[in-house]
């Protein structure tokens, strides 16, 4: 289903020797390099339609083809951030517990109705 949606539509437009405008559509399986640097590399031993029919179609973008280096770096930075924030939180917790122990569980209150 997706293969028909992703196949290119090649339209050729040109002028004839008489000056009339001609246009046609070229199917993707018949596109060959007929001129230029690659013209001598065209192999006619196996028709291109047979090669395309045998090739397995893979929908682009459905798998990761390269190593996601950015993901690795982001995970290292995230782990460092979580470790630093977690360590700070743990140290604050320890300080709060030692303060409560020193003040006898009163916290920062001076008594009922006293200044805070």
Account of the protein in words:
This protein is an alpha+beta fold. β1 (10-15) and β2 (21-26) form a beta hairpin. The relative contact order is 0.06. The protein has helices at residues 2-6, 48-54, 69-103, and strands at 10-15, 21-26. The protein has two domains: 2-54, no CATH class; 64-108. A two-stranded antiparallel sheet has the order 1-2. Helices cover 41% and strands 10% of the residues.
Compact summary:
Helices cover 41% and strands 10% of the residues.
User: What's the average pLDDT?
Assistant: 76
Count of helical segments? 3
Question: Radius of gyration, rounded?
Answer: 36 Å
Number of domains: 2
Number of extended strands: 2
The helix/strand order is HEEHH
Oligomer: single chain
How would the blueprint of this fold be written?
Elements: H1 2-6, E1 10-15, E2 21-26, H2 48-54, H3 69-103
Attribute tags:
3 helices, 116 residues, alpha+beta
